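Duplicate of #3305? Posting structure anyway:
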């Protein structure tokens, strides 16, 4: 009897924790070209120059893009961002000078449609060089020496602060991306149903054994 009560309390605690986690609100990542957590290489952009990178995917629900500049202790210079697809400009953004070291969010005009592999170009419109964190060289001296073709890391953020409940339809829709044609948005919900069924079966078995 006591084991059954303990199992019930444990299950209730797990469910409550999961509900609280999914209900928490925060800024959510819409897309990124980053392949590492921290890069060992920084990408310099000199005054008047552009630095371009290809992003795998850009959705319509974006409001800003985050970059990671290094200003060597001085004020950052104005930056202009241009996103192109098939040679056409699909989105623009920019920020004035005066920012410091660390993450910087650049307001962005969202594209009218989802873009596959757009080219993102960052223009240094100031008079000082700025260095940016890269996107795919891991934090390793050996890797840093072996690669010199890193690109600027771009993290595209969704507007506002959202819960995971609010994002679930988007997650389900993207679950089928780059997968066989028979995989659809329903597949994620079906897998979640299977997992829930396995949990329920395991709980029943534990309660039966406890008796």
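Output from current build:
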């Amino acid at each position: 009897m006591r084991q059954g009560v303990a199992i019930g309390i444990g299950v209730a605690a797990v469910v409550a924790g999961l509900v609280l986690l999914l209900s928490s609100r925060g800024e959510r990542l819409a897309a990124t070209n980053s392949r590492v957590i921290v890069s060992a290489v920084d990408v310099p952009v000199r005054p008047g120059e552009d630095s371009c990178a290809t992003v795998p995917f850009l959705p319509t629900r974006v409001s800003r893009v985050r970059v990671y500049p290094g200003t060597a202790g001085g004020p950052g210079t104005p930056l202009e961002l241009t996103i192109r697809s098939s040679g056409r400009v699909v989105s623009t953004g920019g920020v004035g000078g005066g920012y410091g070291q660390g993450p910087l969010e650049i307001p962005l005009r969202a594209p009218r449609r989802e873009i596959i592999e757009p080219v993102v170009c960052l223009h240094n419109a100031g008079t000082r060089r700025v260095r940016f964190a890269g996107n795919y060289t891991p934090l390793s001296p050996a890797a840093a020496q072996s690669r010199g073709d890193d690109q600027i890391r771009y993290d595209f953020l969704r507007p506002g602060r959202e819960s995971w409940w609010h994002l679930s339809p988007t997650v389900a829709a993207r679950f089928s991306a780059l997968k066989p044609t028979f995989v659809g948005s329903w597949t994620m919900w079906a897998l979640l149903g299977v997992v829930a069924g396995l949990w329920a079966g395991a709980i029943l078995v534990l309660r039966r054994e406890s008796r």
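Confirmed duplicate; merging threads. The longest strand covers residues 88-95. The helical segments are 2-23, 141-146, 164-175, 186-210.
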